[in-house]
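Final paragraph of the annual report: two paired records, presented back to back.
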Amino acid sequence: MLLVKYELKKYFNKSLIIFISLLVITTYLDNFLHYQLGAEKPNIVAGNFGLSLLITQFYLIFLASVYITSEFQLGTSKSVFTGVYTRIEIINIKTIAIILISLCLGILNWIIGLLLEIILLDSISITSALFDLLIIASLYLIYILSVLTFSLLISSICLNRLVTIIINFGAFIFIGDITVQIANRSPKLAKIVENLPFYIVTNGFNNLRINIDSLILIIIFIAAFYLSGIVIFKKRDLT
């Protein structure tokens, strides 16, 4: 746990300050549009949806993209990955740290939504709210594991932060726009794209819901990319 705490401290930097600032602004905007102007939101206790959820998505993708490649960017990869702990242990420690950050953001999302419903709607079902907390925490966990394992595979191949960031954003952000464009030209091809794990994960996170069939596919996706990334990374020459 000491190493996990040390890893967590690395993320208290300017990028976190920028993210928190944007999250506050967009959270207010999303909830103002919903409660004052009737804009839609997921049927779940959540304070972050729409733009604020997209900002969270950006931040999580960024963290997943740099959690390994930052060591190569800073020139600390040799000391980190060739020390007392094995490469797998170091990767798992880094993974746990980002999972904790992601779960904290998910819980924060729920707390904001709960407080707003108590204050503005003056009614809340505790049982239903706790069930929503479980759903949100699970969705955040599934999402970050999906991005982390894919990032592990890409990082193990290229060892480059910028390349990993670009590929991750392409896979988990722009695939939705690509699907819309394809749907206008070829509905059959769009159906194929919609069944890709990248699209399923992103769509589930954006809408804060996912079905069991999709969940099984995502778990297979996570396991496959994690194992592939670990195998490649173990064999890489990092000197």
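The closing record of the year follows.
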Amino acid sequence: MTKDERLYMTFPNDFHRHPKLRNQPAEVKWAFVEMNGEARIADNDGRFSAEDAEFLWTPEILAALIASHPVRPLVIRDGTDYVIREYSKHQQTKADREALTAKRAEAGRKGGLAKAQASASNGQADGGKQKHSQSQSQSHQTSTHVSESPSLDNRASGATDDQSEPYRSTLASQYGIDVMRIRAHIVDKLGMALEPPDVVNVSIWVLNKIKEPPRAPTKYVLGAITRSPAEVQQYIHESGLV
């Protein structure tokens, strides 16, 4: 099942029984629900300009919300703005969402680094065993066979390249992503030139948004960037990758 990406409001189960709403007319109750919904859609943390509020609801309804309690009304007037009182206690705010995004990005970064380090350690251990086995085999070969094997300089150079780019040689291969192809696509669609580790970070974030891994990870990431460039760009900025 596709993940539901819509925003939601939250109200307590006894919302309809609340003294501030219980005796209000139906249109006032519904206006308060609408106001919370419009606040989530506009991402305004429950603050409406007078022009917007009075365009959406009648002055009588707004006055009823302001008069819903003598001290703690549902809506207050702050200068020229109408503000849902205690909005941050019941609904998600910009600050809440930004903090959650940063937390997830940091967790993803740490998880990616841990996987990369573990894979690199396993690779080095396997490489050591393989080299030991090769050295034993080569000790029984003639000088002609030795001369046909790769030089020590070339093997050392290859090891250095793998260690200098662990994201491309380990984590990227685990997820089956073509780092440089995705990097070029990000440059083309978003105008952002990311470093290979940051490209892997973005790719894993995209892949983690779906429950089942796709058959073609690189193709899926490229498609996600094309379909939702603004969302990907927002993640890059919020994660501090640029």
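The chain has a mean pLDDT of 80. This concludes the annual technical report; the extension proposal builds directly on these records.
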